[in-house]
Amino acid sequence: MYLVTSDEMRRFDHDTIQNLGVPAIVLMDHAGRAIAEHVRALRPQRVVALCGKGMNGGDGWVAARWLRHAGFDVTVISSCHPAALQGDARTAQQMAERFGVTWSVYEPGAIRQAAAAGDLSRDGVSPTVIIDALLGTGVSRPAEGVIAQMIEEANATSAYIVSADLPSGVDASTGEVPGPAIVAHETIAMAAEKLGTAVTPGAMHAGRVHVADVGIPVDPAHVRACYVSPAAFGRQFGFRGPMSHKGSFGKVGIALGQMPGASRLASLAALRAGAGLVVVAGSRAEAQLFAPDVVVREGSDPAQLLQDVDAVIVGPGLGILGREARTWLFDLVRAGVARGVIDAEALAAVAHAGQFDPVDGEFVLTPHPKEAARMLGWDVRQVQARRVEAARTLAARSRAIALLKGHRTIIAHPAGRVRVNPTGSSALAVAGTGDVLAGVIGALIAQGLDAFDAAAIGAWLHGKAGECAGEALTDVSVTASDVIARLPDAVRAYRAEVDASV
Fold it and tell me: Tell me, what's the pLDDT at 388?
């Protein structure tokens, strides 16, 4: 599924109106009707539409008209007097008024009073629905003044909130929430979901997102972001021919460090993700921790011991040896191993405090927010507030694929393309799961996938395995080893989605 920014959506709107000749008021009517049809299915006792003065507000007025036409008790609370509306928004308001839609200009307490029926809960669900049509995709500044008051008052009610296109106060392009923002139960996105509701923190405000076809064609050639979906990758992973052998699926190399347990998790994950062979470089004592499935090469120079691998994983469990990862990493690159995963302590070999030593080749950087902050010279709050920008900056400066871990993991390409992973759960919030992810991605790279695809599919498989482990064991009791054990379930789910798309 494509994820569009405000600029991209503006372009698609313009092309539909100017090149295809569809009047803007027709598109507004389609949008408002889509909202109304969704609200109708909720069977509310009454509907309160909060309308701003822009085109998004016009969608709200249209929705109110269609709901009134269907016999619902509906009223509009406007952020301004209707006389201040312009163009199609004014036309939409006048049509709604002719249909008998009542309205008022917002005064403090008006939303609470209009939604008071929500206090009389029905089966635990408020019988009042609030339609949030205050701010649209073109607004990126913090909500303030009357709009901010309306947002805060709506959030304080017990009403069920449905946002038009995106929750007011969320940046459509970045997911940033710079000020007060609606916390919706559901969002009806027009033509395509906005990138800002797919990534955190915006995703935490959007609730369930539904995409409505309102007659605006979305050209994939002009969209730079999408969700990770097995259907998009097809059979390039997860399907094997009868003549396959271990050499068909690549050799993964892992540099051991002070905490070999982390490397063990990465190696076992790589095997479960389909690597033909896993080789670890370390000592005889460390070898005792590894299953017989893994080959251990004794020595102190990983760059020399791993020259023949198809992908290298550097970082898991290195500890203070991470300081040596820079030498190992670039020695491996010079030896021709220019593919793999750079994780954990080894990330310092690429960047620290905004100073980058770009990595040329098919490498994936896999920082969590704290590591990303250290690499960029930001603080963690900045990274979490601006996750898309952080991932894109990491990718551009490192010339590698950047995978920013966390809720709705972001995978960024140096050219600016972005993929958002929809799988995963809080079951993954335990030590060692990052090592598992590194192993999965390393295995996919060794099997011949390019780094961008490997990072995306790896994130999907890792997240799906976490979901499966959480369902079986509860999200409280999952360990990293449990996630590895559920990777076969994730592979089955991947295959099922691919088969269903054929």
Answer: 97
